[in-house]
Design goal:
Helices cover 37% and strands 26% of the residues. The chain has 101 residues and is an alpha+beta fold. The strands form 2 sheets. A 3-stranded antiparallel beta sheet has the order 5-1-6. Strands 2-3-4 form a 3-stranded antiparallel beta sheet. The mean pLDDT is 91.
Length: 101
């Protein structure tokens, strides 16, 4: 699997090979390819909801900053780490910049 360097201009979208549901403000995700379950806290669930349609990492960053009291640098680091982990587990795909909504 090729690794992608995620940047604020990268466009991400939830993989089609998963199913998910909201559970008390958090998210549970089943990767249909490997049968693994993943759980996301409230902030992660917010990100998950936003990536159901293609969106740039920069737009995600702005949306998280609007909703939560967090330093911009910490938000960017945490967001990029979360997305990289999701990418590694096949939960998200990286699209071309022209494919954002």
């Amino acid at each position: 699997m090729a690794t992608h360097q995620l940047e604020m201009t990268s466009v991400v979208v939830a993989s089609k090979e998963q199913v998910s549901c909201e559970l008390a403000g958090e998210a549970a995700i089943l990767n249909l390819k490997n049968g693994s379950y993943y759980g996301l806290n409230t902030v992660g669930a917010t990100v998950w909801d936003l990536i159901k349609e293609p969106i740039s990492v920069g737009e995600l960053h702005s949306a998280v900053l609007e909703r939560y009291d967090v330093e911009p640098e910490r938000c960017a680091d945490d967001l990029l780490n979360l997305l990289a982990e999701m990418l590694e587990h096949g939960l998200v795909e990286v699209k071309g910049a022209g494919e954002a909504r």
